[in-house]
Design a protein that fits this description.
Length: 142
């Protein structure tokens, strides 16, 4: 889904193709999220990070489409489940992306800064993960 979103930004595609690729990314996110939610066991997301990452990608798409209400609702949900992510690297990644997206929404900038700071201080992550979080906090998003 993330790759499809990236592809939708490519200027080599005409606007109609960009929109089709973005719709495909949206569909991948929705199917993935629903599959995890409807699963009867944790095999589909044993570490607990796939669903929030799919939700963050979907939120990014919704923001681009101008659907700010659903965008915000998804981010609230991610914020509630993010602390339960077992893998510290993935938890930092979710915090970082959550912070980036919140800072893009009018009125939620400081809440986004808070999540970005959390990404910087997650325990037991390698220095490169911490540096990515710090870079995102100061506005660089590779």
């Amino acid at each position: 889904s993330t790759l499809l979103v990236w592809m939708s930004w490519r200027r080599e595609l005409d606007p109609r193709e960009q929109k089709r690729v973005l719709l495909a990314a949206r569909e991948v996110c929705v199917v993935g999220i629903n599959s995890i939610i409807n699963a009867s066991d944790a095999r589909y997301d044993p570490e607990g990070h796939t669903r929030p990452l799919l939700q963050l990608t979907l939120a990014d798409i919704l923001l681009r489409e101008g659907n700010r209400d659903l965008f915000y609702n998804i981010l609230v949900d991610v914020g509630q489940i993010a602390r339960q992510i077992k893998d510290a690297n993935q938890r930092a990644r979710v915090y970082r992306k959550l912070g980036i997206l919140l800072r893009q929404h009018k009125g939620l900038f400081w809440r986004g800064v808070g999540w970005s700071i959390r990404a910087c201080v997650v325990w037991k992550v390698p220095m490169n993960v911490r540096l990515k979080s710090l870079a995102a906090l100061v506005g660089y998003n590779p």
